Amino acid sequence: MKARLKWVDGVCFVGETGSGHAVVMDGAPEGGGRNLGPRPMELLLVGTAGCTSYDVLTILNKARQDVRDCWVEIDAERADAEPKVFTRIHFHFVVTGRALKADAVERAIRLSADKYCSASIMLGKTADITHDFELRED
C-alpha cells in the first residue's frame, strides 16, 4: 500500500491514496490553518470506523441479515500530553433492517474488533476501545 502527501501551505496538506483518491487536511485557525479540511486524527477515527463497518456489514451479509442502513457514531478521547494518542474510543453502531438478530450484530462487531479490523486492533494498543449497538426496524 502506498500513499502520497503534499504540503500546500501553512498546515494544509493534500493526501493522495494509492487508489488515486485525494483528501485535504488542514488545521484550525488558531493552529495556523484555514479549516479547509478535517484534521489528520479525525481522519484516523473515520477511517477506523470505515474499516470496522466494512467488516460488520460483510459479516452480516454472509449471515443473511437484511440490513438497510448502518452508521457508526464515534466518541474518542486523547491524551493530554504529547504524544496525544487516543486513550479511549467508543463505537456506537446503529443498524437498520428487517428482522435483524441482535446476536448476529453482536457477533459481527466482536469479530471485527477481535479479528478483522486492522485499524481498530492497531489503535487498541493505546486506546481502550468499546462498542455497542442499537437495532432499528425498517
From TrEMBL:
<protein>
    <submittedName>
        <fullName>OsmC family protein</fullName>
    </submittedName>
</protein>
<dbReference type="InterPro" id="IPR003718">
    <property type="entry name" value="OsmC/Ohr_fam"/>
</dbReference>
<dbReference type="Pfam" id="PF02566">
    <property type="entry name" value="OsmC"/>
</dbReference>
<dbReference type="InterPro" id="IPR015946">
    <property type="entry name" value="KH_dom-like_a/b"/>
</dbReference>
<dbReference type="InterPro" id="IPR036102">
    <property type="entry name" value="OsmC/Ohrsf"/>
</dbReference>
